[in-house]
Amino acid sequence: MKVISKKLHRQLFGCSPVKRQTESNQYLQKFGLDSVVDGTDDTELPLPEWVGFASETLDKASSTLWATSEKS
Amino acid sequence: MGNLREKLNGVINWDVPSHPVAELSEKSYPLERGWYKRENSNWVGCEAPSDRVLFVDTEAVLYNGHRTPLCCSAYDGSQWFIWVNSQHTHSARVPDGHNNLYIAHNASYDRSLFSSAYRPETDSNNWFCTMSAITAVRGMSNQQRAMYLSKNEFAHQGWETEATLVSLAASLEFYTSEKLDKGFSKDIWKEGLPIWFTNAADVVHYCCSDIIYTVKLARYLLPEFFYSVPSLTSLSGYFLMSSEFVILRKSWINFHSKIERAYSLASGRVSQELEKLVINSTENGFNRHLDWTADKKGKINWKKKFSSKLATAKKDHKGASINWRECVSMLCLTYLKHPITWHDDAWQYDSSIELEEMREFVIDEDKLVCLPHPDKRGMKLTQLLIKSTVALFDGCISSLATDCKPLLKDILSITNWTSLRTRVGDVDASKYDTETLIHIPQETVYGTITRRKGGKLFPVAPNPKAYKMGTELKSYLTAPTGYKLVKCDFDSQEAVVFALLGDSKEGFVGGTPLSVTVNIGQKATETDIHSMQAKATGMSRELAKALVYAGFYGQGLKSATQHILRGSPNISPSEANRLAKNFHTSLKGEKFNGLFRGGLASSSYNTVSRIADSKEPRTPMLKSRIPLSLDTAEFKPTRDNWVIQSTGRDLLDTLVTLITYGIHCEGIDAKLSYTCHDECIYICAEADTRKLAEVIMHCHLLTYACLVEALGLDTVPCCRMYPEAIEVDTIWRKTVNTSCKTPTQGKFKVDGVALSILDFKPSANSN
Predict the structure, then answer these.
(1) Is the predicted pLDDT of residue B1 greater than 60, yes or no?
(2) Which of B56, B78, B58 is nearest to B67 (CA)?
(3) Which residues of A fall within a CB distance of 8 Å from B7?
(4) Are B124 and A18 inside 8 Å of each other by CB?
(5) What's the Rg (C-alpha) of chain B?
(6) Which end of chain B has less neighbouring CB within 10 Å, N or C?
């Protein structure tokens, strides 16, 4: 299974991805399934400026939109 | 100005107001249309209140087929306001101010009567509904409500002391034991406009009283609400969805009458054909349950009764009905080739007889099996030709009477409209621009205990079907001139949530077989979850698919056995039980020390169960609490399902919040119009649609990133980065390629384009 690239991971979570736990792959192999592999950034859209770390962006979005009584 | 949450919080400390006019007499309320404020025991004319937190209540009547407000009362913590209406026109609305936070019980009803809601491009008011709040905090599931309302005694389990019905009277009584008499509300609606001319003072008085009750309720309810739904993102999603509106094609004005005409013609034909069928009928295996004995004059008993019933119906300008058992029995219907008959107060089929064509047979009552009820599991099916059974006619139920085929087609064509006609007739739409109308849906933002939206029309509207009249309903939803609808949803949302919850135990995505099958499994290579379950248990993929989803929602072994029996009547109960056991073992695994192990989805079941059984169950993402009514050891499937559905709601709140922020940052001319389940529909200026679609792509990724982070997972699977497609369309339909042709709407071709991630890659731009 492919996951997002290391670069995008760092942009969204502010850290490098952890090393996968390979022993769980035996569990998956029982079902004839693949292990996890990193994706590449050529399949990903570059993030716009207003996107920072995922949870920080969400906090900012939630508080900015309702900071005043006026709707955005 | 504090933020909206602080404003709501402030209300908790308000004093309960005294009634503005305790001894209101007819002379003491103003007669001229307009807003008034209470000053020195007088009503003084004023502008509509603005920049305030206002409790509001509106009284309205049906006038010329439109809801028309008679009066509105408002209270801002120190000042009372009223608006009275002396010019009753069908387009009358409460002319309200701006930058207000309105609080009301069943707020969508009041909002639909306020003029600002009909100008979404400039509307700066927000609405908070105490009925939504009580639903999230102390609402009941359908099962609980049925038990609560049941006249029969049920074993009191304790939950009922923490639960309440959600009406204003019931909610306030729950907290204060105060009993409200809401009878006058019914009088207003029943009497209509004349009550305003005879009893206006009482109407205004009643309207102000409701505000006092709502303030009282809010003081108890809001602290509980903030404890139950603590996230600012949840509140943000709530406020965005409480401002929804839909734009309809101008021809909506004639939609109801157009379908009614077609319905009237078709139902007239159906009645005539049914009558002919009954009159000319002879005894056969399908209709032998009727009393075929004859009286002294040779008249058959059941036909005599039928004639009398028909005569009564004709006096009311009606005819033979598809709800009459005699009529249904003449259609010679079979269920999976087994003849259907009426027995023991239900429609049943004889599992021992198989019919390819019409022939004589005798029903064996010992072999009769009840037809499955499509809506209520385990209930007897007493009406066969209704909207929810129509799907069974697609392969399961058919007619052996060849001359009945056109009649059956007509019947199936009208069943859908029978259930929709009143709700469509109730839609109040106003002119928006030269080509469109605007409608404010009366939908409760938290309509269920899982905080999913409740609504009677659009959320349950079917997709267009070529053989069902009126099913073009959704296609009337459109964008104003110069704008487009931009739509997105979460692909397989519930399955993905369930899989990621399982991964959270392992600590990384793809950590469980379910996660891998859901995220990268393919039907073509038989690695999707349905194919894998089918292979593991020896059943068809279709049946496995139905059981997989039912399994996610907490279906037990007994229920799965019944499910298999319904779909495969040739399988014996013991074989069905064996298959169900195999299926459950393969999906859930075996239970050791209270935990499932070895199944495709063991980790997911264990995680969901751990959350649902925890001391204070909360969603993993935005930390919303389970309603207090479900804080019990009972209703395990409902509590498990709450974990998945409420997390789905968190995803939607997150997505719409992020998209709105993206719209704000990018300066896009777009606004959330409507949400339905996990689908969001934006109205966007044509020139900005591509920009909005790109924002949605990023926000979809961010939403899943927030979920995996909240679950303690390491990253996001590529397949969940971007939605499969973002549809830029002229009307609301499933996809841009979906045909909207129905018996009442001919070929209807409009533009629409589906944008995928490939359309946003640099290579795509350069082409």
Answers:
(1) no
(2) B58
(3) 69
(4) no
(5) 29
(6) C
Cα B732 to Cα B62, B187, B431, B442, distances in angstroms: 29, 39, 19, 19
Least confident of A28-32, B417-421, B512-516: A28-32
Give the closest-approach CA distance of B61 to chain A in angstroms: 31
In this model, does residue A72 exceed pLDDT 50? no
Using the structure block, give the residue that is written with the tokens 């022993």.
Answer: A23
Burial A6-36 (b: 16+ CB within 10 A, else e): eebbebbbeeebeebeeebbeebeeeebeeb
* CB proximity under 8 Å: B 165-224 to A: none
- What is the predicted ipTM? 0.90
Inter-chain CB proximity B666 and A34 less than 8 Å:
no
**pLDDT exceeds cutoff 50 at B766:** no
**Cβ–Cβ below 8 Å for B661 and A60:** yes
Q: Which of B513, B702, B715 sits opposite A57 (nearest CB)?
A: B702
Terminal Cα-to-Cα distance of chain A (whole angstroms): 39
pTM metric for this prediction? 0.90
* β strands within B551-628, DSSP E: 589-592, 595-598
Distance from CA of B144 to the nearest CA of A (A): 34
Q: Kindly state the tokens that stand for B62.
A: 């049906």
Instruction: Report yes or no: B706 and B509 within 8 Å, Cβ to Cβ.
Output: no
Q: Work out the widest C-alpha separation in chain A, in whole angstroms.
A: 56
What rounded mean pLDDT belongs to chain A? 78
Q: How far is B560 from chain A (nearest CA, A)?
A: 24
What are the tens digits of pLDDT across the range B187-211?
888 888 888 888 888 888 899 999 9
Query: How far is Cα B110 from Cα B187, in angstroms, rounded to an integer?
Result: 18
B718, B726, B756, B763: which to substitute to probe chain A, counting the most A Cβ within 10 Å?
B718
> B33-77, pLDDT tens digit by residue?
899 999 888 889 999 999 999 999 999 998 887 888 999 999 999
Give B717's contacts in chain A (Cβ within 8 Å): 1-4
- For B137, the 3-state DSSP assignment is helix
Look at A12 and B714 and tell me if their CB atoms are within 8 Å: no
- The pLDDT confidence band at residue B29, using thresholds 50, 70 and 90, is confident
- Using the Cβ of B1 and the Cβ atoms of chain A, whether some distance falls under 8 Å is answered with yes
- Could B719 and A44 be called an inter-chain contact, meaning their C-beta atoms sit closer than 8 Å? no
The DSSP 8-state label assigned to residue B635 in this structure reads -
Q: Are the beta carbons of A36 and B661 separated by less than 8 Å?
A: no
- Give me the residue from B51, B236, B718 closest to A66, CB to CB: B236
Q: Would the CB atoms of A58 and B99 count as touching at under 8 Å?
A: no
Angstroms from A20 CA to nearest CA on chain B? 8
Report the pLDDT value the prediction gives residue B136, as an integer from 0 to 100: 97
Give the HSE-up count for residue B417: Cα atoms under 13 Å, Cβ half-sphere.
Answer: 29
Residue B689 token pair: 């649609």
Report d(CA B324, CA B553) in Å as an integer: 36
Please tell me if residue B608 touches chain A, with a CB cutoff of 8 Å: no
Using one digit for the tens of pLDDT, what is the confidence trace for B410-437? 888 888 888 888 899 889 899 999 999 9
First to last CA, chain B: 49
| Residue range B240-285, pLDDT digits in tens | 999 999 999 999 999 999 999 999 999 999 999 999 988 888 999 9
Measured between CA atoms, how close is B589 to chain A, in angstroms?
13
The nearest CA of chain B is from the CA of A71 a distance in Å of: 5
- Residues on chain A touching B721 (C-beta within 8 angstroms): 4, 44
The 3-class SS string of B430-472 reads EECCCCEEEECCCCECCCCCCCCCECCCHHHCCCCCCCCCCCC
Residue B2 above 60 pLDDT? no
Q: What is the pLDDT of residue A67?
A: 63
Asked whether residue B559 carries a pLDDT value surpassing 80, the answer given is no
